């Protein structure tokens, strides 16, 4: 069984598809084949994966395949620190790498691209922008088909650099979804240490699906004095009406404060919001502490930095990490 070129997040879903036969198998998999399949697909927990690695070793699966599986495991779970820590192992394995023994790489260039990728992640975590650019560029050159997997790290670096220079003006006021006088962010944050902004659209299926998660998040933050304000991207009567209709299942008073982003000089543009839903955590000083997905580990570590009592709640629809 070989999973050729199924590398990095965009391709990992294909592993599950490749592992699921479209027709009944003519014969049961051997213990070694079963161990290899589990090794490449186990994602439930570090403990379960460690068991898969142990069983793979007992079945005679080589160190190169186990290294490849460990790489996929950490990439799939977005554990950049663990990926960066594997660099010495990748450099050592490069001396004896054999394409014929690989379970995920179709060409030698794919393997070399991943080495460059791991070096890029290590450089990024070390704050060396020049080395990151050097290695991620080489990774693109070696394996262009993996470009959409390499790109998010570049986008994240640029976003972080941009956000470092942004300061939110809390005197900015926005119209409530339900109508009435504009509400200033200063009134929402009050004397609290931070405010969480959600950018949202009633015309996004993902936004609608995230409402149960949003409810759980705002309940946890409310207990810990972190106010939440949602800004609707589209400034129109229809989007406002659609938002109100979608919020009805949440009760007469939906969690948080629901506002409409400005038509001129929208806050979403300043914060480079390109997809929704997006959460932006802002300190009382107006500094951006986080900008990204609500189920990101970084969001919850940033919140815990403000108040250690804040714990990530069980999120009904969030991807398992």
Summarize the structure.
By secondary structure, the chain is an alpha/beta fold. It contains 15 helices and 7 strands. It folds into 2 domains: 155 residues; 134 residues, Glutaredoxin (3-Layer(aba) Sandwich), CATH 3.40.30.10.
Question: Helices, strands, pairings?
Answer:
Elements: H1 8-19, H2 31-41, H3 46-58, H4 63-76, H5 80-85, H6 87-93, H7 108-125, H8 129-142, H9 147-164, E1 173-176, E2 183-184, H10 185-189, E3 194-200, H11 205-209, H12 211-223, E4 228-232, H13 237-247, E5 257-260, H14 267-270, E6 278-283, E7 288-292, H15 297-306
Parallel strand pairs: 3-4, 4-5
Antiparallel strand pairs: 1-2, 1-5, 3-6, 6-7
Structure description:
The chain contains 15 helices and seven strands. By secondary structure, it is an alpha/beta fold. 30% of the residues are buried. 50% of the residues lie in helices and 10% in strands. It has two domains: 8-162; 173-306, 3-Layer(aba) Sandwich (Glutaredoxin), CATH 3.40.30.10.
Give the key terms.
7-stranded mixed sheet; 15 helices; Glutaredoxin; 321 residues; alpha/beta
Main sheet?
7 strands, mixed
> What is the H-and-E element order?
HHHHHHHHHEEHEHHEHEHEEH
Question: How far apart are the termini?
Answer: 26 Å
> Rg to the nearest angstrom?
23 Å
Mean pLDDT over the residues: 88
Shape call? elongated
Strand order of the largest sheet: 2-1-5-4-3-6-7
Low-confidence regions: 1-21
Strand content: 5-15%
Structure summary, number of beta strands: 7
